[in-house]
């Protein structure tokens, strides 16, 4: 059986549960509890950042976990699992899938090869976080198991949009054989349905479910906009 089909045999929702050190929910078992809540409500997978949360969530839930490590490297724009060190740590923490940057920046399409090979040799699948169609095509050639639209809008040359990049999801689904995971700025159930209609195998939703500070800010902005209307 193809690795990706074994990991996520059905289409569905993957919830990204992440809180970096500067975010209010960072620390302790908060993120693990978020993951448990998501699974209790029907999510089929979790995407999470960092060794602690990957390991903790793996102990707590039975669904596949996509692991990444966000790491700032001075002078580099690549921050999602930038080096082999992070790949090794994610594999050791027990993730089922390693997510990493497969963008066309800083020679990454060449530099990422040993990272992909390491994960695959360890029996762990790879999700390529891309920002454009061309990067998705390149990622498939590199032998990844999933392609995510995660970084659309986060590279200088990709589509900059407020909402999800449905066009990229659709283009990739038409051209690649590996499952495409729609990810990035999916805020409503309708967005998620549309991503699946575009051909996505799965949908990752993060902030709209697990970043209460951003959810709150949207309500506050909407209310302040509506109260200023007509004044
Ligand atoms: C660009 C970047 O750093 N994305 C990260 C990747 O793991 C996460 O911070 C996002 O929450 C995740 O991609 C889900 O997206 P959204 O939160 O928009 O649903």
Description:
- The protein has an eight-stranded parallel β-barrel, surrounded by seven helices.
- The mean pLDDT is 97.
- It has a single domain (3-215), classed as Alpha-Beta Barrel (TIM Barrel), CATH 3.20.20.70.
- Strand 5 (125-129), helix 7 and strand 6 (146-148) form a beta-alpha-beta unit.
- Helix 3 runs parallel beside helix 4.
- The longest helix has 17 residues, at 212-228.
- With 231 residues, it is an alpha/beta fold.
- It has helices at residues 3-7, 30-40, 51-60, 84-93, 108-111, 113-121, 133-141, 166-175, 189-197, 207-210, 212-228, and strands at residues 12-17, 45-49, 65-68, 97-101, 125-129, 146-148, 180-183, 202-205.
Number of helices: 11
The number of domains is 1
Mean pLDDT level: 97
Hetero groups:
N-acetylmannosamine-6-phosphate
CATH topology: TIM Barrel
- For the termini, the CA-CA separation is 62 Å
- SSE order: HEHEHEHEHHEHEHEHEHH
The major pleated sheet works out as: 8 strands, parallel, barrel
The side-by-side strand order for the widest beta sheet comes to 1-2-3-4-5-6-7-8
Which SSEs are present, and which pair or pack?
Layout: H1 3-7, E1 12-17, H2 30-40, E2 45-49, H3 51-60, E3 65-68, H4 84-93, E4 97-101, H5 108-111, H6 113-121, E5 125-129, H7 133-141, E6 146-148, H8 166-175, E7 180-183, H9 189-197, E8 202-205, H10 207-210, H11 212-228
Parallel strand pairs: 1-2, 1-8, 2-3, 3-4, 4-5, 5-6, 6-7, 7-8
Bound molecules: N-acetylmannosamine-6-phosphate (LRY).
The site of N-acetylmannosamine-6-phosphate has 15 residues, from strand 8 and helix 10.
Pfam families: NanE (PF04131)
Family: Belongs to the NanE family.
Function: Converts N-acetylmannosamine-6-phosphate (ManNAc-6-P) to N-acetylglucosamine-6-phosphate (GlcNAc-6-P).
């Amino acid at each position: 059986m193809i690795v990706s089909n074994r990991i996520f045999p059905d289409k569905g929702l993957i919830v990204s549960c992440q809180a970096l050190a500067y975010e209010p929910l960072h620390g302790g078992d908060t993120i693990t509890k978020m993951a448990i809540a998501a699974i209790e409500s029907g999510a089929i997978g979790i995407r999470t950042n960092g060794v602690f949360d990957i390991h903790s969530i793996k102990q707590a839930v039975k669904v596949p976990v996509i692991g990444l490590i966000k790491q700032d490297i001075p002078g580099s724009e690549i921050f999602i699992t930038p080096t082999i060190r992070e790949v090794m740590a994610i594999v050791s923490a027990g993730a089922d899938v390693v997510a990493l940057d497969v963008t066309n920046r800083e020679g990454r399409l060449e530099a990422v090869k040993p990272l992909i090979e390491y994960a695959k040799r360890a029996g762990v699948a790879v999700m390529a976080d891309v920002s454009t169609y061309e990067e998705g095509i390149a990622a498939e050639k590199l032998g990844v198991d999933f392609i995510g639209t995660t970084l659309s809008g986060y590279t200088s040359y990709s589509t900059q949009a407020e909402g999800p990049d449905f066009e990229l999801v659709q283009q990739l689904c038409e051209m690649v054989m590996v499952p495409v995971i729609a990810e990035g700025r999916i805020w409503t159930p309708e967005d998620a349905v549309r991503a699946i209609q575009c051909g996505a195998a799965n949908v990752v939703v993060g902030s709209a479910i697990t970043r209460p500070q951003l959810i709150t800010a949207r309500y506050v902005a909407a209310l302040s906009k509506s109260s200023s209307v007509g004044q």
